[in-house]
Structures
1.
Amino acid sequence: MPFGRWAAVSHPELDEITVDDVLHALADPTRRAIVRLLQAEGDRPCGTFGLPVAASTLSHHFRALRKGGIIRQYDEGRQRMNTLRTDELDKKFPGLVAAVLAAGN
Amino acid sequence: MPFGRWAAVSHPELDEITVDDVLHALADPTRRAIVRLLQAEGDRPCGTFGLPVAASTLSHHFRALRKGGIIRQYDEGRQRMNTLRTDELDKKFPGLVAAVLAAGN
């Protein structure tokens, strides 16, 4: 478990993450859009995704992705950053995230 | 839309089924067990899956699979039969169901 920069929010350990968690986390087009943008452009702060949803809704989506083991969040200055855990997840569920993202928006 | 033997319950058309529907339907180990048994042994009636859950719970799971486009149900005599729609789904979401089932129980 990393210390320091992950301390602000809790993240499930890889061995705690179930298939169900991953599927629930990805069963939403806004959340898949977040994952795609992180894949394409790397880590970025919550406020910079340019998605047409309210801040509170977006906050809910980031939380769902975090609880589902899809992203890690860490604080950098005043910004909450997001980074993908898909390399980690691929060890446990090879190809799952890619298959879901390939299935459509 | 087939007539007759599908008439007892409603099923979404293929073009109505979303990625989210499929993921929600498969985000449960009992529902994945139902799909696996249908894949392995073909169509079978609701009461013959041998799963350790209450009849009302099982009924909920069949409904979730039906609404998510994973199975079709039809009545045969007094039995409600279940058949997979995964060939159909694969045309719309190639490899998605297989990837989810491969990810774990």
2.
Amino acid sequence: MSESNWGRWGPDDERGTLNLLAPEAVRAAVACVREGRTLSLSLPIRGATSSPAPATVPHLRGRPLPQHFMSVDAGDYAAGARPIGAGLRMADDAIVVTPHGTTTHMDALCHMWAGDELYNGHPAGRVRSYGATRCGIDKAGPVVGRGVLFDVPRLRGVRHLAAGDRVPAADLAACGAEIRSGDIAVVRTGWPLTWEDSPEAYWAGQPGLSAGAGRWLADRDVAMVACDNAAIGGLNERQLADEDLGDDLHLILLWRHGIHLAEMLWLEDLAATGRTEFLFVAAPLVIEGGTASPINPLAIL
Amino acid sequence: MSESNWGRWGPDDERGTLNLLAPEAVRAAVACVREGRTLSLSLPIRGATSSPAPATVPHLRGRPLPQHFMSVDAGDYAAGARPIGAGLRMADDAIVVTPHGTTTHMDALCHMWAGDELYNGHPAGRVRSYGATRCGIDKAGPVVGRGVLFDVPRLRGVRHLAAGDRVPAADLAACGAEIRSGDIAVVRTGWPLTWEDSPEAYWAGQPGLSAGAGRWLADRDVAMVACDNAAIGGLNERQLADEDLGDDLHLILLWRHGIHLAEMLWLEDLAATGRTEFLFVAAPLVIEGGTASPINPLAIL
Amino acid sequence: MSESNWGRWGPDDERGTLNLLAPEAVRAAVACVREGRTLSLSLPIRGATSSPAPATVPHLRGRPLPQHFMSVDAGDYAAGARPIGAGLRMADDAIVVTPHGTTTHMDALCHMWAGDELYNGHPAGRVRSYGATRCGIDKAGPVVGRGVLFDVPRLRGVRHLAAGDRVPAADLAACGAEIRSGDIAVVRTGWPLTWEDSPEAYWAGQPGLSAGAGRWLADRDVAMVACDNAAIGGLNERQLADEDLGDDLHLILLWRHGIHLAEMLWLEDLAATGRTEFLFVAAPLVIEGGTASPINPLAIL
Amino acid sequence: MSESNWGRWGPDDERGTLNLLAPEAVRAAVACVREGRTLSLSLPIRGATSSPAPATVPHLRGRPLPQHFMSVDAGDYAAGARPIGAGLRMADDAIVVTPHGTTTHMDALCHMWAGDELYNGHPAGRVRSYGATRCGIDKAGPVVGRGVLFDVPRLRGVRHLAAGDRVPAADLAACGAEIRSGDIAVVRTGWPLTWEDSPEAYWAGQPGLSAGAGRWLADRDVAMVACDNAAIGGLNERQLADEDLGDDLHLILLWRHGIHLAEMLWLEDLAATGRTEFLFVAAPLVIEGGTASPINPLAIL
């Protein structure tokens, strides 16, 4: 049995939403709304396959990029297709998405583990070709809570962190924000800004939380950690995490504590507001057995 | 130029979010939260392709159903695959989704039109194979507003409406809820309940709003209309809308008034609460040029 | 170790083509060409997703049908897209295919097994999420050999067999064709003709070879068995095979004898020629680790 | 009307196979078989998405690479899934392929054009989102003919051509092979060998036929031209063809003469045999409205 903060059901229990944020926490979160201004914290999904567009969005090297296809569009009518009925014209489409490493997404608790058990003792063998019958993203439930921004580059007076940076707990504390049980820790590294330099600059590695920072957040009983990097913890130049099993950020947060993770957020617009407390909403698609969902997380200020 | 309520930019203007809900409306919407309880209004996405699962979710006959593939899962490790590094195990996946008619989704303003112009005079020719450069779902912006439930079956004392029902404006008015500019009208028909009888029962047609009801909502300047049916308006037994161009619900709401639409919601849990006013949140994926996005809309009570 | 006819490599051997048809057999097969006329034995792949087209091709109920998307087409130019360079216009596309049960295809030897070993003792654990590293369709190699048509409906004087028909070995013998080691047995049931009546007629079950007929062909050391039904053996009304493990056609042919299988061929044009001996060619795509490949098999008369 | 060699039907004619190779040509082609040895001329399709495999096959930079997913595999059984019936275990899969620029494929005649007409006057407007109703790969028909290898690097005594090489007609003539009407010209540049150096080396450009060589082959009335490069003609370092409309290889061969094209073949094994005349077979999948099909072309020696 893991050091579960958020497990509302044990290894023999298959029902319901895992992370049921307490009503009082939701009400308190909603009270964070001051201006009534909504910001999307998402990267765009660019899937036009016969153009360079997909490669213009930050992504981990080698991952299969999104594909977006129009199955009917205005070109069909321009080329002579007849409208529907008395003159109705429509556009229809399809997308192919592999969320990890390619777009803003939320991990399910089944995404990573060690040994034979997922988070909270659920048998790993329940994660098979047809999906994860335990700890899938469909069990995660919507996330509505108090978001707290840890703007680490701002703390350090830099535009973005360096690839080798591993953010210590002391930096999170120094950001000065009060963090409470049930909050969503939103951590900015600024790393997506390097994509503008070149993909190679982005792929040189990734800054991220240190194991100590991960434990610091787990100790404060956050419901979720959301970062603008690709893996919460850092990555080396081979796009791998360096930590051993005891210090791996996914294992600390997701596996031992049942804390959901979201990666590849876009936090530049939020950081520019100077606001560090807001209503945070993430509504993962209810993909049965999914290991993740693309999301468009919101900060409502 | 259409009778645009919500057009913040005209045909020559490519920038920004189209439906920018006013900050005061968002603050007022947030004030609807009383309990702090969050309900998902989404159908599940069941995409396991080597099982009957995809066909167990309500959908329009003949539409390509979601596909969900695990590119790494626990079975690999059970069959002998080596963990990563010192023992990390992961699961990874991909989804293929054609939102219209297959799952809970939000339409972009480019989804339907007549003639050569989209909503608000934008040239239809901008909707091509690589996506819609005008009025795509990426321009829609997140929706955060006051949700108002119109529970028509409850009004009529039935479990769900009949396939041939076209809900008149008088029924919406009789639901008694106050509806204001910027609100999200959430209309329940109960039609997804027929899926439990059989797919054929579901495919017999679909109840929906009448043209008059559509105009009634447009006159009240709603930001969005969200229904649990597949097409807002009704469908006949061939799954087609019967109205002429002047009365088609998509053309009235989406095309003439720039009112976003969401279809195939699951409203049974919300209806059971008896609540008719709540904070409504829909965060479509930022699919550049998309005609729609699957969504997991939320009612926060 | 299975009763392998065609296994050219054993359980520890990972290299090369599995079914290497002997050069003299290929030369003899080529000598079957008399007219110089080529027939395709394939069903069409209809993947236009915003039309009923995909559902108009015979397929097993519930299988995910092919999807075909144009990522650039003439409609784009009609709607104003600029040509490439001085005036070049192009069309580009993508397909999504799940071969089993949806289109004319060839099974890999890894497609079915019992216990923990694939054909010829190869460990089943080598078939994982990233594909089959043993017995994948990439190991099958192209098939070029003497094709022999067993036109069972013609033998019985009927248009097509009945759903419950299980073709006995005696019927194959009665077709009168000489069958030799290395040949490709092409067996016609005529079942695709029922699709013209209705999908429901097609889904009522499927005629197929009996276990005895399977053994009869294995005894004659054929290289491959190709049928116009969906599963070589028959299927009941739930689209399942009825035989026990000893009599299952896939286990007899694929698993015990390493005889490749192809299903869902279109044999009506070939049957109409009256020819029963021809050059047969099937060139599966070299999908590493694939369990099957869509194919366009040829009969060269 | 184009200078069509192979057009068996005109702009108002929608039926049948376009390139109907004459029976006598097929019989003569079959007579090329001497040894009875079959070589695949195809690159592998590597689609395992959670590994670097897809990127290990030569492809044009930026193209969407193949994806291969196992929807059931042995890992499921190792992890506890129950077999079917009395013990049947199966593996099932799906592929996503965008043929142009990513794998060995055959172009349809609708793939490229200039102005408003496809090959032979067919209206370009017939190529829409649902596919090409004229000149699609489904109309191409199987290719069975006399293959003639033009091994240009061998002629020049080099391992492979240089990126800037444009092969003149004189080189084709100097290869010494007799080329006749209906033949398939198989031209080797050796360019795939540069992939072993690095992807960047491969992407530096591509050698190809000159316009003069294209015309030389058209004058000799070949049925098809198949190369191991990505675009028949050469490409510059931006992966674009440099020729003007009059000299573009696709326009000369595909558009003006209705000569089918196949690209990205693997010709190293064939070149090593020293054989220059053989039976060539290409059986494109019957993708209705397709602009191309992945193929596994065969040389039967």
3.
Amino acid sequence: MLNQLDLNTLSKNDQIDHFLVIRKIELRTTRAGKDFLSTELGDKTASLNASIWEGFTEIAARGKIGDVVKVTGTIEEYQGNLQIRVASIKLARPSDNVSPRDFLPESKRNLDEMKKEFDQKIKSITNKSLAKLLKQIFSGETYEKFCNAPAGKSWHHAYIHGLLEHTLEIIKICELMCEFHPELNRDLLISGAMLHDIGKIEELSFDSAFEYTDKGKLIGHIVIAYNMVSDETNKIQGFALELKNNLLHLILSHQGKLEHASPVVPKTAEAIALYQADELSAKVNAYKNAIDSEVRTDSNWTRYIPLADTDLHKYDIGNSSENEPNKTLFE
Amino acid sequence: MLNQLDLNTLSKNDQIDHFLVIRKIELRTTRAGKDFLSTELGDKTASLNASIWEGFTEIAARGKIGDVVKVTGTIEEYQGNLQIRVASIKLARPSDNVSPRDFLPESKRNLDEMKKEFDQKIKSITNKSLAKLLKQIFSGETYEKFCNAPAGKSWHHAYIHGLLEHTLEIIKICELMCEFHPELNRDLLISGAMLHDIGKIEELSFDSAFEYTDKGKLIGHIVIAYNMVSDETNKIQGFALELKNNLLHLILSHQGKLEHASPVVPKTAEAIALYQADELSAKVNAYKNAIDSEVRTDSNWTRYIPLADTDLHKYDIGNSSENEPNKTLFE
Amino acid sequence: MLNQLDLNTLSKNDQIDHFLVIRKIELRTTRAGKDFLSTELGDKTASLNASIWEGFTEIAARGKIGDVVKVTGTIEEYQGNLQIRVASIKLARPSDNVSPRDFLPESKRNLDEMKKEFDQKIKSITNKSLAKLLKQIFSGETYEKFCNAPAGKSWHHAYIHGLLEHTLEIIKICELMCEFHPELNRDLLISGAMLHDIGKIEELSFDSAFEYTDKGKLIGHIVIAYNMVSDETNKIQGFALELKNNLLHLILSHQGKLEHASPVVPKTAEAIALYQADELSAKVNAYKNAIDSEVRTDSNWTRYIPLADTDLHKYDIGNSSENEPNKTLFE
Amino acid sequence: MLNQLDLNTLSKNDQIDHFLVIRKIELRTTRAGKDFLSTELGDKTASLNASIWEGFTEIAARGKIGDVVKVTGTIEEYQGNLQIRVASIKLARPSDNVSPRDFLPESKRNLDEMKKEFDQKIKSITNKSLAKLLKQIFSGETYEKFCNAPAGKSWHHAYIHGLLEHTLEIIKICELMCEFHPELNRDLLISGAMLHDIGKIEELSFDSAFEYTDKGKLIGHIVIAYNMVSDETNKIQGFALELKNNLLHLILSHQGKLEHASPVVPKTAEAIALYQADELSAKVNAYKNAIDSEVRTDSNWTRYIPLADTDLHKYDIGNSSENEPNKTLFE
Amino acid sequence: MLNQLDLNTLSKNDQIDHFLVIRKIELRTTRAGKDFLSTELGDKTASLNASIWEGFTEIAARGKIGDVVKVTGTIEEYQGNLQIRVASIKLARPSDNVSPRDFLPESKRNLDEMKKEFDQKIKSITNKSLAKLLKQIFSGETYEKFCNAPAGKSWHHAYIHGLLEHTLEIIKICELMCEFHPELNRDLLISGAMLHDIGKIEELSFDSAFEYTDKGKLIGHIVIAYNMVSDETNKIQGFALELKNNLLHLILSHQGKLEHASPVVPKTAEAIALYQADELSAKVNAYKNAIDSEVRTDSNWTRYIPLADTDLHKYDIGNSSENEPNKTLFE
Amino acid sequence: MLNQLDLNTLSKNDQIDHFLVIRKIELRTTRAGKDFLSTELGDKTASLNASIWEGFTEIAARGKIGDVVKVTGTIEEYQGNLQIRVASIKLARPSDNVSPRDFLPESKRNLDEMKKEFDQKIKSITNKSLAKLLKQIFSGETYEKFCNAPAGKSWHHAYIHGLLEHTLEIIKICELMCEFHPELNRDLLISGAMLHDIGKIEELSFDSAFEYTDKGKLIGHIVIAYNMVSDETNKIQGFALELKNNLLHLILSHQGKLEHASPVVPKTAEAIALYQADELSAKVNAYKNAIDSEVRTDSNWTRYIPLADTDLHKYDIGNSSENEPNKTLFE
């Protein structure tokens, strides 16, 4: 655990004496022939720009994205944005005992609480084949990775433990749908919800940054998950073929449309429920985070967000009514 | 209330002495020169084909879709489908005291229970402007129509009280999203959920059949709802402009995409939550009903369903495993 | 009225002693540590780049887009483009008696002449309900805004009085269609043409720059217009419901396709005429302006124009034939 | 000229003693083993169904679509539609002196008047190269075909002289655009308007019915027109290359989008004007005709029209207001 | 082997005494109350319509699609199409020793020759891991199924041995591409070509008719193939991970686009080669067969073919030139 | 022929004394007020960046894209990319006897060998009309241009002789398809393959750089080719009309889809074969070149390639297996 203030708690003129991770780094030469280093440095709460004009020989030669550096300097403001005026910068040493992992963004939810919830959901599965399958998969190293992985590279739940948080949301949404529709097979649907994104633990690397792996790009998390689950069912005696095909269909179809990379579209009531629950959890998380990180103090609108194909609006409750007793929005 | 067995409880060789509604009617001449009447007759639970070869003079001359007829005859089976062999048929008389409304499909949920739930949701709104708005709109004739209307012509929740049932589902889904995301403005989102489809009470007629009205076709339920809510907010003193615009934005954007007839796309966190909650409620209901009404005994697959762009599968739990302790699917 | 030469009449080496409006402004630091101000300055006829190296303390601190500045300097040429070499720059004072409005681009057509034409068109409506409606709406502050508003932010008729100019064009095109097709209801169609874009007076702000308002982004000009016209018809006794629905349908469907943000597609002969007339007026204006402002002296082609999805060509008549007696193109 | 009443003037129980053209013909056998002939017979004003039960040996053996027959019988009504009860039918003899051409639908505009208008438009072209080109092309057999051809197989201006009528409309629309925009090259644009659809005289056959030719299907009217005009310009000395390319570009791009079979999109101001003028003329004509031929007495809506992707509405002015002094719509 | 003339060699008035398979069957009642059986009967070379008016009690009760029947009767012509006038019909008995398999369409290429070619292609693979993998997969029951399977249900190579024929074509096309581009990894590409459609042996059933299996609909042949190959590589020691991922990528991406159900798009040179080779082999086969089976004697055009989104043309060489020394087209 | 080492053979610290062509040139002023020239210089094998700080007066004033310059200096490495440190630079003089053509990229295949192959393919055509047509077209200046032209501006076969190389590939692919399908008309298909892209010799200029001509942009190579071939067939007596239309159809439809600028879609078996063969040749060439020029030493992935809509992967055989006996990929 790092003994330093989070970046997002600092203000103009605050002093920096921090370990930070390199998010972007580029050596540039000014047209006057002077070299400088243009960087973006961050911790798990924020990222700030920093241009370094002196004493960057070591960093320029050996520093790369994902490396941890020790930085001293000052927070300054430049055209409405905070940035770091660097006094000194050097690569972290082994003896510093810091890891890039400590700088990745993390879910705001408590991990142990989420794991406890998840374990209870597994126990709620009454079908013996499915229960066995879930216990086999959600164990050992796979379970550990599942609990740590982000649910995406940058769009939604793109933080450590994000996959677990996202999966729990979908489980609860699906349970609500089972209340509305007792005809839905709860065991099948909840098992599918738990397993649908398990392939992301191999599609993404999340040790020092969130990046697609070669396997992730060539195969994709949907087929990776298919293979993991298919192989595991083969180890379970008496796993009904129809049940297996329906479970695998949930995994394959959970992105809902061929053009979203699902090789089959949802063809069962459970499959359409899982797809729509996934959309709901993902989109609301993504929009909330985009609004949170993009809205500036001088506007209630974000820049244009490509994945939403629009700019987004923050409902500024304070301006619109003097006596709103409600929760505040994004404050 | 009709004192007769529901059609969906009858089997081959059962006798018919029923009031039924005309769903389709066409006078045909055989190529041998003989006239006959090809019809589809139903009650609120099912529809059956019936070709009538004798004694249809009155019906042929004056019967039209939506009219109630008194039919005697027998249930027979023809190539795997049940149909009615008509012995006699005549138009219902005023003295029969039956109405086409009695033959429209209805929600399986209890109306009073749904209204009670809905009223409690209104009471949960703490913002005074919104609370006032909801009370004004959900009252009198508008509220009555809202409680009776279907949520669609044929695809999802296409039955009497369907709009209320659908709205309640969306409210609950949105409440769950508010649990996940305290940043969401609950009052705004739940109010938007309640009002988003209110325009359907004018877009559709649902007295004797579910049809689009002229206004429905020329204006559409989204803009109708916009106008209803906008007019009503104008009657409330101090209704904050920013709140009004955000609420109206929820209504306008709730179909999520321009090509789905929303004139604006969702631009707030509440708007994306409402859109995705609507999709979830609508699609699962639609798929469940399509599977329910289309799957035959000799296949686990429906015909091709145009709105799903695929055929749909019924997970036949009985065949796949001897000891499934779960709920049955669509049985 | 400003007593200074229009920017588009100046050439290389001409002296500048002008009030200009700030179109873009960005404070930059050279890599050698020197600050400078990168700006775009313009009047209603043109915009030029200007980098300012000295004496910009006041502007950098308080100047923002839309502000008027007093500039002295020289026009110079840089790689084929004219730009301003700034000698001095300061913010305009109240005593200078200049307004950002004086710097917005304006229609080349005479305003009074356009208003006169428009009034005659209103008088040509013989249906009493429609005539009354038009007189009510095109009066007072609404009429004033309508006469000043641009028809768009940047694509077509994007200048002061542009909405009025665009509306007049559509009226005349629709009148021609009524000559071809006496079956068209002229009163309905011309009224629809007059009202179709009235919502733009609230969708856009056009005091110091052309920007979308919050209401414009959340609601959009189509639904704003719908509401304005619907409310106004309610004040007219005996306004036939069928007529109202058809008129409102013209407004809602005038962008022709759902994906262009019309919530309904054109379903009447008048609606398709209005949509296509709108397209014709808008596209020709947009292409003409794009060609006019983009074609350089060394090429008959513009850069790639995203909204046209192509580069555009200027037919250079002088090169192609010695004795063309025709009008010149874009000269 | 046929000495018989037009079909669209006849009513129930009127006697038929007419030459008519076969529009559809199919020999069917009843399931009782009886043969009958199912046909659609028409003149230039309408088409009616007719099933023939006796005396059709000759027709069945030798009659085909486009042939003229002599029919006696009675108009009868069947489920709201008029049809012909045939008493006798036989193929027309040469001595009858009738031609299938006499039964094709025709423009309601006077041919001589249209030709006179068109000739004046040619004379208005002042560019010598273009004037010469137009005189060469619009002469002899080509001009005769141009004056007779329909502008389409079934969608818009799908009647004899339709191409000329359509072309005149576009010319007038383009002239109006030249009034708005003096920068447009009038000679170029009007010449392009005249020539843009000339390829239809080879794409379609219109002697006995409107059908695509082999060349029409394999090459298409756009490229056919390109070739005709390109070849003709080569015969004119001093035809400027830039002018030729711009004129040909108008022809190639006049359908506006690649997916509408234009091999290039409009890249000049004249090209976008021609495309949008074509759309305006075509769509209004098509919608008007679809409404005219599809709306029944018991509804103000047509069936679903695939090319419009909607059903269409007839504004029924009589119902909506007692005192409309306007032109009637489609009556 | 059936001792009877192929259907496609018979002409009008020929006698039938054949075993045929039922392709369609429907019991209908005439409007005069008479039952008859509407069927389509075929062998591996053709299918003909046959309506049966007498003696069909057994067939109507027990016959279904895919069953073999013994039929006597005569070939007759009806409106340009041949059909069967049935004298007698009965279900085949076990003692008849006929199987539905004998009636499925078959590749015109010799099976043994194709297998020999295929084996030689396997032997040409020099990479040891890939060679071992191919030998393992193309053996035993899997190889037998692979040699028998069609490549599709109805569009291309939709006949017994069609998958083998299609695979051989793709191999040869890919070999040609390797000649053009020595940079392509031949072993990888040819192995991918061999394996890309192997999943079709489980996606389709082809014993008595070509139908999708439940697994085929829920999982799809792409993922089935992925799983087969992935499992098999796991049995091979030292199978390089990078090679495995690249091979599996070929399988997953071979339909080229997400909307064609590939969960990843081609990302390597080999992958794009395989996709385009597959398209080439499939489309030419499909168009050729569609032209072959659809063109009638009175036209050089087929009906509209949905999968080609056009009607297709047969180049009738005989009509176009007296002295063409070339191969004839589709004769 | 230039007597200098190819750029792609040079390494860090190598001396430059080369004629090179200007690919990009931009005069910039540093923020410290110092001018410098930012350029990209290349020969036919590569392009390198070069910023020039001194002695560029002449180049800055008169140099433009496509000009040849004489450069001395050193190769240096900057952040993993090689660039040129310029010591001196001046425009080439006429006496230097160098031409921009010498710097355009060229096919790696031998021109004479390709021409010999092509001539043999022409001789293989047995249809007299087609043989005559091909001999007429592939002669003189047209043939010379055809042999020199690139097949595209930048995507595939974008180098001198690329059109000939691409055409030969398609011919061979089509010959293979004729082996699979004897029903295809070989003469027609091979002639179509030879002629399909002939219009590119007028669509593109390729003297000093690859650019679209005005005619290329306004007409496009498909219609240019149509016109060339159509005109030429008119000179051949007895050229059968059906053959001509089918040949022209191959040219017009060879881009396969309307949205790819073909004015008709493929409607014959030969047309679909040509389209798919073109796709295969083009895509594999394009992907190979994109991988070749984009993959860096530190990654097996290219940047995102817009025309492929993905990043591309280089299968790095060396890393994946110690004993691959195969050809190397892109090395």
